[in-house]
Amino acid sequence: MRDPARAAHLRRERCEVRRGDVNDAASLEGMGEGVDVAYFLIHAMAGGPGFEEREREGALSFARMAKREGIARVVYLGGLGDETVSKHLRSRHETAMALAAEGPPLTYFRAAMVVGAGSESYSTLRHLVKRLPVMIAPSWLRIATQPIAVDDVIEYLRRAPEVPESLGAEVQIGGPDVLSYGDMLDRMALAMGLRPRPRLPVPFITPWLSALWLGLVTPVDTNVARPLVEGLTTETIVTDSSGAEPFGIATLSFDDALARALAEEAA
After folding, report:
1. For residue 141, which of 64, 85, 120, 150 sits 20 to 30 Å off, Cα-Cα?
2. Which domains does the chain carry?
3. For the whole model, what pTM was predicted?
């Protein structure tokens, strides 16, 4: 990782912390020694324009190191949805393709919104509900998505080396509920003990304006908000569940995931 100081808790768990930067290939030398499975959970949107190229180059450097140093498998978490409609989703998919082309066999998980304390998407929902008595309602609030609890995502990632069918495979994962983003805002309000917020339809608001709006009323970085909003304009649902079936994971409902995240924040 880039900042070992942020991993002090890992040392207490008898983990060895190694420092590297995927955009500095030389810094990755030796990172794969003694490693059987490597997890690639990196994105570069917060760095602003040009993140797609940074993500692709970082994935290539990591993949080449992993193959060169004998890592048996790489596990990557990308996004669901049509990758042709946004830079964010396209970059996620191109990262997976770079990892698969240059590195060891890849397990490519694809998920929509991950619901958990600390996640950007969950934090955005919570702050919108908390801060706005009335919300503007761009058309993307009607788009269907299939959120998944962060604990379920972690369990899929953890089990990947134990599931032979996932080696070299794409695995689409999601929770049991298919909802619109508007539905999720209403459920967030109820989970927080509030009334669902009235919404003022503004069908022609652009992703750029939506991103500015999110940046004003939530703590999400505008550099992150704009590509995220572009990705919200396409459905992000599981279209092929066959890859997830061998894992045998019973995923949490959206309401249960919200309750768990809110309880964790309050603790």
Report:
1. 150
2. 4-266 (3.40.50.720)
3. 0.89
